């Protein structure tokens, strides 16, 4: 459903993505990992059209999204939860979700389906989002992106800054996303924390895709993680 072919991206003269080729199947959850500065966030931005491709292309279900202006990419079916979540902290949970609905979506049924995945939000619809825990904020950001009924959802470091118990909740949320049939690219340095919720892991190094390995193969040989991401992650 998503095909990235020979993608080159630059910031000024500095090349950050180099001939990157990667595909994601319908309903697949892919973990994208690599060291700091490998180019993970840049790839998310390139898919969203926020960083332009200098060579190569990105195709979603037959539409060349890398040729679209950035505001058309969400309408083509890509949802994005950036690093840091970008919620409106003064607004309530309900108001944040309604902003998600304004951009596209079927309205109430989309909102109800999104909340059904995150029951904790249903209990907190009137609460200001800035007062939610970090994990709850991440769930709200995911639910808001789902209100657009994307075919592909990009999650950039959803476990960043969270306590272990909340990381487990995010892992469960990612597993729940799978049941909706949406394809997911999850940027994550802590591969172990999400391994049980993903199908494949793509290792990015210095702007190039080193290898793509099934979660099953990593469970059988965890040293693969250290080889590509380094000890300590
Ligand atoms: N706006 C920018 N202008 C210039 N260089 C940038 C810009 N954003 C990122 N870079 C550089 O591009 C490279 C890739 O950055 P990117 O944020 O994609 O990496 P990352 O793998 O997401 O890293 P991290 O895990 O630290 O978030 C880095 O060397 C970074 O310094």
Automatic annotation (TrEMBL):
Keywords: Amino-acid transport, ATP-binding, Nucleotide-binding, Transport. SMART domains: AAA (SM00382). This is ABC transporter ATP-binding protein. InterPro entries: AAA+_ATPase, ABC_transporter-like_ATP-bd, ABC_transporter-like_CS, BCAA_Transport_ATP-bd_LivF, P-loop_NTPase. Belongs to the ABC transporter superfamily. It holds the Pfam family ABC_tran. GO terms for biological process: L-amino acid transport. Residues 2-231 form the ABC transporter domain. The keyword ATP-binding applies. GO terms for molecular function: ATP binding; ATP hydrolysis activity; branched-chain amino acid transmembrane transporter activity. Signal peptide: none annotated. PANTHER family: HIGH-AFFINITY BRANCHED-CHAIN AMINO ACID TRANSPORT ATP-BINDING PROTEIN (PTHR43820:SF5), HIGH-AFFINITY BRANCHED-CHAIN AMINO ACID TRANSPORT ATP-BINDING PROTEIN LIVF (PTHR43820).
């Amino acid at each position: 459903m998503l095909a990235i072919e020979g993608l080159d991206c630059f910031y000024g003269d500095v090349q950050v993505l180099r001939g990157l080729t990667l595909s994601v199947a319908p309903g697949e959850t892919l973990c994208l990992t690599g060291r700091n500065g490998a180019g993970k966030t840049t790839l998310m931005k390139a898919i969203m059209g926020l960083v332009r491709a200098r060579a190569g292309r990105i195709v979603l279900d037959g539409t060349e999204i890398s040729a679209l202006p950035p505001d058309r990419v969400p309408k083509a079916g890509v949802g994005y939860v950036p690093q840091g979540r970008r919620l409106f902290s003064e607004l309530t949970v309900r108001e944040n979700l309604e902003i998600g609905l304004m951009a596209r979506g079927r309205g109430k049924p989309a909102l109800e389906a999104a909340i059904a995945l995150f029951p904790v939000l249903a209990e907190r619809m009137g609460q200001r989002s800035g007062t939610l825990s970090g994990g709850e904020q991440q769930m709200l950001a995911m639910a808001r992106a789902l209100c657009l009924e994307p075919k592909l959802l990009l999650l950039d470091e959803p476990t960043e800054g969270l306590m272990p118990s909340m990381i487990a909740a995010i892992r469960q949320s990612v597993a729940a996303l799978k049941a909706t049939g949406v394809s997911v690219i999850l940027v994550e340095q802590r591969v172990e924390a999400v391994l049980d919720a993903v199908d494949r892991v793509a290792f990015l190094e210095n702007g190039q895709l080193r290898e793509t390995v099934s979660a099953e193969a990593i469970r059988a040989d965890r040293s693969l993680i250290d080889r590509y991401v380094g000890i300590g992650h």
